């Protein structure tokens, strides 16, 4: 399998817009049926060997629990209960409205009494339109979705490797359905006051963070890219160097993102090492300026300092 295969946004934009809304439907069911975790860690998808999953959710009636899985090999949605019940349907050939109704039908069939609290898209241009009324988004190219899944899996492993270098509070590597990105976040545990922010944002950024991740392109960055940001942003961040040379600081919603375009990574002699170099340089820029404790860092995932190999003379 090719490492980091090509997937230009324009080659699957319509499919991505449909799949993004499919993911939001299931993500909102997960939100309604799961116990709330700090920084909304209960909400994102996690990866499986065939796609993405809500993880066990519930319990519902009778103490049963369930998972909802996107299978991007067979291109089906599966709903399975702890007691052995199962329902599924194909992902292709459905509008968002069809998908929403078929999902609710599957839940009812399995006696699962959970529905989205607000069955509308989140932070998308059609956020005023209920999922059930969306017959516009219906594109589904299985080949493009398979490529998306391959990239998602490879980047997840890269982010897992990046995550080994920090022993402080760190999120899982998880796939957010609201922005359709894959991310891992490091925390300093310094509490941040955000009186003017909405409750969702306040919870997500209640502590100082440096987040790293990948998205597949959107209206703001119309191509796949690796990214990193520090929140709140320390003074002088954009003056700090990024590596490799193709990386840059970019203005975004009043702060700045470190960006390295996916095509620049693909063109590198060692794409894996190049992406890791970028993430580490962006982390170092934010951590140094924000005064993060170096003792939280653990190269190679080793926190026992007696086991670390001393640097060569």
Q: What's the gist of this structure?
A:
The protein is an alpha+beta fold.
Structural account:
This is Ava_C0101 and related proteins. InterPro entries: DUF5996. Pfam families: DUF5996. The structure is a single chain. By secondary structure, the chain is α+β, with helices and mostly antiparallel strands. The protein has two domains: 9-133; 142-297, no CATH class. It is 28% helix and 20% strand. It has helices at residues 13-33, 96-109, 142-163, 199-204, 262-267, 271-290, and strands spanning 46-47, 51-53, 66-71, 76-81, 86-90, 174-176, 181-191, 207-215, 225-231, 248-252, 255-261. A six-stranded antiparallel sheet has the order 6-7-8-9-11-10. A five-stranded antiparallel sheet has the order 1-2-3-4-5, covered by helices on one side. A hairpin with a 4-residue loop joins strand 4 and strand 5 (86-90). The protein starts with 12 loop residues before the first helix and ends in a 23-residue tail after the last helix. The mean pLDDT is 93.
């Amino acid at each position: 399998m090719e490492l980091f295969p090509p997937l230009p946004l324009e080659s699957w934009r319509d499919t991505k817009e449909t799949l993004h809304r499919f993911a939001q439907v299931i993500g909102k069911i997960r939100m309604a049926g799961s116990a709330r975790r700090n920084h909304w860690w209960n909400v994102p998808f996690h990866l499986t060997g065939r796609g993405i999953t809500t993880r066990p959710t519930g319990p519902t009636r009778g103490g049963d629990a369930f998972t909802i899985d996107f299978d991007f090999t067979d291109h089906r949605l599966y709903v399975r209960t702890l007691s052995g019940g199962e329902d599924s349907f194909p992902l292709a050939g459905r509008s968002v409205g069809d998908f929403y109704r078929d999902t609710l039908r599957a839940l009812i069939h399995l006696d699962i009494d959970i529905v989205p609290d607000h069955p509308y898209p989140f932070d998308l241009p059609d956020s005023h339109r209920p999922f059930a009324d969306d017959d516009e988004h219906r594109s589904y190219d299985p080949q493009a979705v398979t490529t998306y899944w391959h990239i998602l899996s490879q980047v997840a492993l890269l982010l897992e490797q990046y995550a080994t270098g920090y022993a402080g509070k760190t999120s899982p590597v998880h796939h957010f359905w609201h922005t359709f990105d894959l991310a891992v976040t490091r925390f300093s545990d310094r509490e941040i006051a955000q009186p003017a922010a909405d409750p969702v944002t306040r919870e997500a950024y209640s502590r100082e963070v440096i987040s790293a991740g990948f998205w597949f392109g959107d209206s703001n960055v119309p191509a796949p890219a690796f990214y990193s940001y520090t929140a709140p942003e320390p003074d002088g961040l954009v003056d700090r160097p990024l590596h490799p040379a193709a990386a840059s600081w970019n203005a975004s919603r009043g702060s700045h993102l470190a960006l390295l375009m996916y095509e620049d990574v693909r063109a590198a002699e060692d794409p894996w090492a190049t992406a890791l170099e970028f993430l580490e340089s962006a982390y170092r820029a934010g951590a140094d300026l924000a005064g993060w404790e170096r003792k939280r860092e653990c190269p190679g995932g080793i926190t026992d300092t007696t086991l670390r190999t001393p640097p060569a003379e």
